[in-house]
Write a sequence for this structure.
C-alpha cells in the first residue's frame, strides 16, 4: 500500500474514532442534562406496553445506543424492576430511538450550511468555552453536548474525505453489486460489522458515509441495514450470559423482534427490487438511508406490537425456565447482588434509582431487626435475641454489597445533583447499619436480663414500651421519607425525634429516682439506662436519614 493509501486509512480510522467518541460525549451530556427525568420515565412505566415503546424511544434518543438500552432492559429484568411484558415495549421503542443518530449523520445533505466542515469547528469552540469557563452546571452540560456534536461531525468529515479518492474504484462498485444481488450476503455483512463494533448507530453511520460519496446502491444498502438491526442484538445476548433465565428471555425477545422484522422487510424489498431494477442499482443517499431506517423500525414496531405477548411466549421456547430455580428461595446477599445489576450502570440515573430501592429495603430489614430486639428486651426472649444477631450479619453483608455498587456509580459521569444523591445514599446506608448495631446492643442487654432473671418494675416496663414505640415510629417515618422522598414523612421524623429526646431525659431522671427509692435493683437500672441510650441513638440515626431527604428536596 502506498503512503497516500496508508494516510487515508489512518484518516478513516481517526474519523471513525472521533465519530464514536463524539457520539459518546454527546450522549453523556444529554444524560447529565436529563438527570432525574430519566428516573421519572422509569417510574411512569406500567403494564401499558405503549408507554414502554415511548420510554424505549426516549431513552435511546438520549443515550444514542439501542444496544445500551437493551442491555439496561436485561439488567432491569434481571433485577426484578420490570417484567417481560414491560421489557417488550422498551425493546421496540429502542429500535425507533436509534434512528435519531442516522438523521444526525445525514444532516450534511440537508444544505450547505449543515455540512460538518461549515459549523462543526464552531460547535467545538463554543462548547469548550462553555464547559471550561461557565460556572453554571447546566451551561457546562450544554457545552459537553456541543463538543460531542461537533467532534461527531468532524469525524464524519474525516471518514468521508478518506473515502473520496476511491469513490470511482471498481472494488467498491463490485462489492456492493455482489451484496445487492445476494440479500443474505448483504444482511450477513451488516450483521457481522455491527456485531464486531457493538453499535448499530456506528455501523449505519459508516454506511451513510459511503453513501455520501455515491458508492452504495439501493439494494445493497437496504439489506445491509436490515443486517445491522440483527447485529445490534449481539451486545444484549452477550450481556445476558451472566443473568437469570428471565433476563436471557429479554435478550432473545430483542433478537426475535429484530430478526422477524428483517425477514419480513427483506422479502418485501427483494420482490420490490425485482420489479425496479433501475432503482435497485442506483446510488442511495445518506438521507434516503435515514428515511428507510426510520420507516423500517417504526413499521416493524406497528406490525409486531399486537403480537408482543406471542414474542414473550416464543422466548420461553428458546430459554426454558427451570422449576427448581423458581421454587428455590434465593440467599439474602445473592438476591441483593442480582438486584444491583451492573448492566443498569449504563445510565447513572437509573442506577441511582435502583440502589435507592435497595437502601429502602435495607431500612426495612433494620426495622425488622428492631422488632426482634424489642421482643427480646421486653419478653427476655433468647430466640428473638438470636434472630437479631443473624439479621445483623445479613445487614452488614447488605451494607457491603450496596456500598460497592455506590462506589461504581460514583465513578460514573454524574452531575452535581446525582453526586449529592450518591453521597447521601452512602450516609443513609451507614445510618441503617448503625441502627442494626444498636439493635444488637439491645439484644445483648436482653440476654443479660434473661440470664440474671432481671424484671423491670411495672412503671419501668411501661416507660420502656412507650420509648420503644416512639423510636419505632421515628425509624419507620425515616424509611418512608427515603422511599417516597416525602417532606411530610421527614417532618414526622423530626417531631418523633423531639419526643424521643424528651422521653429519654424524663425517663432517665425517673429511673434514677426509683433507684434512690430502692424501687428498682441497681443491675436492672444499668440495663434500663443502657437500653434508653441505645434507643435514643437509633432515633438520632433516623433523624439523620430524614435530613438527607430534606437536603435533596
Amino acid at each position: 500500500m502506498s503512503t497516500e493509501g496508508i494516510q487515508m486509512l489512518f484518516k478513516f480510522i481517526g474519523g471513525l474514532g472521533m465519530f464514536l467518541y463524539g457520539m459518546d460525549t454527546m450522549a453523556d451530556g444529554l444524560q447529565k442534562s436529563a438527570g432525574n427525568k430519566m428516573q421519572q420515565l422509569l417510574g411512569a412505566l406500567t403494564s401499558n406496553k405503549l408507554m414502554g415503546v415511548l420510554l424505549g424511544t426516549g431513552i435511546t434518543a438520549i443515550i444514542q445506543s439501542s444496544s445500551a438500552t437493551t442491555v439496561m432492559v436485561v439488567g432491569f429484568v434481571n433485577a426484578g424492576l420490570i417484567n417481560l411484558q414491560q421489557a417488550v415495549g422498551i425493546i421496540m421503542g429502542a429500535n425507533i430511538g436509534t434512528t435519531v443518530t442516522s438523521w444526525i449523520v445525514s444532516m450534511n445533505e440537508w444544505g450547505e450550511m449543515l455540512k460538518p466542515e461549515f459549523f462543526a469547528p464552531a460547535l467545538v469552540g463554543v462548547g469548550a468555552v462553555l464547559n471550561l469557563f461557565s460556572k453554571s452546571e447546566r451551561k457546562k452540560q450544554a457545552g459537553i453536548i456541543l463538543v460531542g456534536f461537533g467532534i461527531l461531525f468532524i469525524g464524519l468529515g474525516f471518514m468521508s474525505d478518506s473515502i473520496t479518492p476511491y469513490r470511482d474504484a471498481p472494488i467498491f462498485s463490485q462489492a456492493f453489486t455482489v451484496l445487492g444481488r445476494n440479500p443474505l450476503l448483504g444482511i450477513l455483512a451488516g450483521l457481522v460489522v455491527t456485531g464486531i463494533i457493538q453499535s448499530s448507530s456506528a455501523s449505519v453511520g459508516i454506511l451513510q458515509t459511503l453513501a455520501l460519496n455515491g458508492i452504495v446502491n439501493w439494494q445493497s444498502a437496504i439489506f445491509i441495514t436490515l443486517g445491522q438491526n440483527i447485529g445490534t442484538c449481539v451486545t444484549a445476548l452477550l450481556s445476558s450470559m451472566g443473568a437469570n433465565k428471565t433476563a436471557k428471555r429479554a435478550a432473545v425477545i430483542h433478537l426475535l423482534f429484530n430478526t422477524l422484522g428483517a425477514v419480513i422487510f427483506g422479502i418485501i424489498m427483494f420482490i420490490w427490487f425485482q420489479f425496479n431494477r433501475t432503482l435497485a442499482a442506483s446510488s442511495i443517499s445518506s438521507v434516503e438511508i435515514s428515511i428507510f431506517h426510520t420507516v423500517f423500525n417504526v413499521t416493524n414496531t406497528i406490525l409486531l406490537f399486537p403480537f408482543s405477548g406471542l414474542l414473550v411466549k416464543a422466548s420461553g421456547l428458546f430459554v426454558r425456565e427451570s422449576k427448581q430455580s423458581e421454587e428455590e428461595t434465593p440467599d439474602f446477599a445473592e438476591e441483593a447482588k442480582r438486584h444491583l445489576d451492573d448492566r443498569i450502570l449504563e445510565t447513572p440515573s437509573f442506577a441511582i434509582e435502583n440502589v435507592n430501592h435497595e437502601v429502602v429495603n435495607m431500612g426495612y430489614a433494620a426495622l425488622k431487626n428492631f422488632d426482634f430486639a424489642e421482643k427480646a428486651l421486653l419478653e427476655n426472649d433468647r430466640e428473638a435475641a438470636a434472630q437479631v444477631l443473624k439479621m445483623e450479619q445479613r445487614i452488614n453483608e447488605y451494607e457491603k454489597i450496596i456500598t460497592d455498587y455506590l462506589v461504581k456509580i460514583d465513578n460514573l459521569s454524574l452531575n452535581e445533583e446525582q453526586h449529592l444523591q450518591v453521597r447521601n445514599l452512602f450516609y443513609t446506608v451507614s445510618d441503617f447499619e448503625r441502627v442494626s448495631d444498636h439493635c444488637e446492643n439491645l439484644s445483648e442487654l436482653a440476654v443479660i436480663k434473661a440470664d440474671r432473671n432481671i424484671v423491670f418494675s411495672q412503671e419501668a416496663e411501661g416507660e420502656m414500651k412507650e420509648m420503644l414505640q416512639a423510636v419505632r415510629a421515628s425509624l419507620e417515618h425515616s424509611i418512608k421519607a427515603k422511599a417516597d422522598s416525602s417532606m411530610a414523612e421527614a417532618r414526622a421524623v423530626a417531631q418523633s425525634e423531639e419526643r424521643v429526646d424528651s422521653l429519654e431525659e424524663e425517663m432517665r431522671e425517673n429511673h434514677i429516682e426509683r433507684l434512690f427509692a430502692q424501687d428498682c435493683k441497681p443491675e436492672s437500672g444499668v440495663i434500663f439506662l443502657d437500653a434508653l441510650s441505645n434507643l435514643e441513638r437509633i432515633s438520632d440515626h433516623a433523624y439523620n436519614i430524614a435530613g438527607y431527604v430534606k437536603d435533596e428536596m
Summary: Residues 323-330 have pLDDT under 50 and may be disordered.
